[in-house]
Amino acid sequence: MQEKLTVIYIISDRRSGSTLLENMLSKSREVLSVGELAMLKGHIYKEGPGELWNWNCSCGKPVMQCEFWSKVLNGIYDDNFETKITWPYKSMKILFSSFTSVNSKSILQKFINTKKNKQTVWALNEIYKALGNTSDKKFIVDSSKDPIQALAITKCADINVKLIWLTRDLRAITFSKLKRWKQNKRSEKKPLETLIDSFRYKKVCNAVMKNAAPENVIKISYEALAEKPQQQLDNICARFGLVNYQAPAYMELNNDHTIAGTPGRFERKVIAADNSWKDFYKQHAMLNALGKVFNAL
Description:
alpha/beta; two-stranded antiparallel sheet; 12% strand
């Protein structure tokens, strides 16, 4: 019997280093990295995040003109095509269940089991299979980040799913989001609101991880990944059955066909932790203190 394809799905908040981890995993000979598969439909229709690179594949071509993606999507893409699970981001039920563990699995499953989301899961299952067949790789890395989508794809019949929860200091995430929004002139959110939103997202991630089989998950931090990349990659390989390989010194694209990710992925950069956020909190003592509390919860 043919061995099932394994999807390594990265759960994280925005501005947490998911593109870095995805790029590092792509250097394994056993791995095909596709970026954020949840953003695939948006890139086809040129809507949502992706305007900075005109919603193109990382090869520079529009998705449906890219030789790789056009082959993958042949027979799958249609008018009902969808690649992103929908769920109420600020659901108080999810937040409370993440603290108490009471009925958390049934609450999460309720959000997943809508007609639209079931159709999305079917489409993702077909895309993953096509990716495996097209690339002949044993592992597919999907850095879509969304924790509910991660739980949803465990329902895909034809794949094994492994989850990496990539965490980062909530103060760093908050600072990085504010900085990016200011650059793009797209948000009026205040630092406290952004920190609270990041904390809520963390709790949703935690609720999902608690409902996954322990042998199928691993939790690592951005700080550890950036400071000790070889050690973290070795831990992932040992956990999920990949052959060990040399950690890259740079984040860079090499004939990749990835969807979405940080705009910085198009530049070759030395892998190093970004601690520029620390200066910001020297002027925001109360926010800094609250961030420490949220990190501990």
